[in-house]
Amino acid sequence: MSTALGSIGDVADALGLLPDEYATYGRHAAKIELEALDRRRDQPDGHLVCVTAVTPTKAGEGKTTTAISLTDALGTIGEASVLCIREPSLGPVFGIKGGGTGGGRAQVTPMETINLHFTGDMHAVGAANNLLAAMLESHLLHGNVLGIDPLSITWKRCVDTNDRALRRIVVGLGGRLNGSPRETGFDITAASEVMAVVAMSAGVEDLRERLGAITVGTTFEGEPVTAEALGAAGSMAALLAETIKPNLVQTLEGRPALVHCGPFANIAHGNNSVLSDQLGLKLGDYVVTESGFGSDMGFEKLVDIVCRAAGLVPSVAVVVATTQALKHHGGDPHGGVEALECGAANLAVHMALVRRFGLECVVAVNRFPGDDPAEIEALRALALEFGALAAEINDGYEQGGEGAAGLAEAVVGAAALPKQVEFLYSLDDTIEEKLTAIATKAYGAAAVELSPAARATADRLTSAGLDRLPVCMAKTHLSLSHDPALIGAPMGFTLPVRELRPYTGAGWIVALCGDMQTMPGLPASPAAFRIDVDPSGSITGLR
């Protein structure tokens, strides 16, 4: 969809940013200087509105579209609203999912720029990650003064492309001048700890400190080796000095949007940067932020990790649901109300998780063209029956902000109610207790089962005093369980945890569950097949 956009300077001015508090990237994007947040530290915060969803399906639930249209709708009803979402990764853009800028009349723009190279943030994260890998290899080659055990190295390279052939590779071939052969691999950039560090940093000084705290392996004596010890943290910080600044763009309706950082929610923590949220809360009365995938994924991590670490307090959660998704979870994607009612058990689990965190739940029934009105009304009724404070239809795809006005009114009402945010676990719990709390309270599991390797790592991390870190689960997003084939609301299963990775810079422990990989692969018919450039230089097929 094409539309005439105002200059990004006009958007910045309307937000109250001073001319020296932002730097433009062309006419339609800008980097916001961190001084803009420092100048507003003493101002009261607005309301943080968290958009999440039922368990995703291949049809897509329109969570980003809902977040964008809700932001536009809040502006339409007279509220000062700011959108905070993640930057798209080239992996999904050229893979299955496609871009991450919404659709129809609910989009952030310019779509092609944001979905591809944007302001270079993704590339900078990859460069910093791979610089650390290169400096590690160089240290080993030039005498290994730190006494690093090559078999202990956990640091991987990264690339912002789905490429399953890079999951496991051998480096150092070609004789002594090129190092010694060692098995390693690649993660996708969204899963890099550097991405997590940028997203969680409170400022440049905090960024520098977190980068230095990244652990790459151990010495032969078992002592941790950090990026600081390798002398890499300063150069990494230099590569990220611009990246840490939030990016400002706009919706089709001219509402401000902060698009910053891009961690996936199934293999990383799945939320935009802390700095974007903090800045948005100072600039607007309502900040709409979207967490990746279902509430068991990005939303759980938003509350248990991000909000806990940054002191953010959500006001309300919006759970996006569609008739198509619930019929899928009912086992009959082409069925009617009966299949929807069966699959609604999945919605009930996600709503229950929101309330477990102490938040009010508003359900957004995202209407797709061709949806059966009877099924739409059945979904609304079920949501209210399950305890939703409100259940409103979202027609944002076709109508923009006007199509989400009822949802916006419900959100404003819910945000005004008192809330007491609770976490699923205490930081004083053991690592296994934290894993069990998430698995049983968020997923419906009966227990967790740690592999021998994961249990050994848990013991080592506990001995090192890292057991008080929160846990970031890496599991499939297609099921509440670890098995993508278990749709609906599976109960009583055992969640297998095969590996634990300490992210000492980001500040948590990653738990890889089931067969989850940190480097996705391309499908047989990737989105890349339809993307091209026409004779005028315009990009086609990107969505």
Can you describe this structure?
The protein has 543 residues and is α/β, with parallel strands linked by helices. Helices cover 34% and strands 19% of the residues. Strand 11 (215-218) and strand 12 (224-226) form a beta hairpin. Helix 6 (121-141) crosses helix 7 (193-200) and helix 6 runs antiparallel to helix 9. The longest helix is centred in the N-terminal third of the chain and has 21 residues, at 121-141. The radius of gyration is 23 Å and the shape is globular.
For this entry, give a set of tags.
single chain, 543 residues, alpha/beta, Rossmann fold, Domain 2, N(10)-formyltetrahydrofolate synthetase, Formyltetrahydrofolate synthetase, domain 3, 3 domains, 4-stranded mixed β-sheet
| Percent of residues in β-strands | 15-25%
CATH architecture descriptor name of the largest domain: 3-Layer(aba) Sandwich
Average predicted local confidence, pLDDT? 96
Helix content: 25-40%
How far the N terminus sits from the C terminus, by CA atoms, comes to 10 Å
Radius of gyration: 23 Å
The outline comes out as: globular
Please identify which CATH superfamily of the largest domain we are dealing with: P-loop containing nucleotide triphosphate hydrolases
Detail the poorly predicted runs: none
Q: Which secondary-structure class do the elements indicate?
A: alpha/beta
Give the topology, please.
Blueprint: H1 8-15, E1 22-24, E2 30-32, H2 35-38, E3 47-53, H3 63-76, E4 81-85, H4 90-94, E5 102-103, E6 106-109, H5 111-115, H6 121-141, E7 157-159, E8 169-171, E9 182-184, E10 186-188, H7 193-200, H8 204-212, E11 215-218, E12 224-226, H9 233-239, E13 247-251, E14 256-259, H10 274-283, E15 286-290, H11 295-310, E16 314-321, H12 323-329, H13 337-356, E17 361-366, H14 373-385, E18 390-394, H15 396-399, H16 405-415, H17 431-443, E19 447-450, H18 452-463, E20 471-474, E21 494-503, E22 508-513, E23 532-533, E24 539-540
Helix pairs in contact: 3-16, 6-7, 6-9, 8-9, 12-13, 13-14
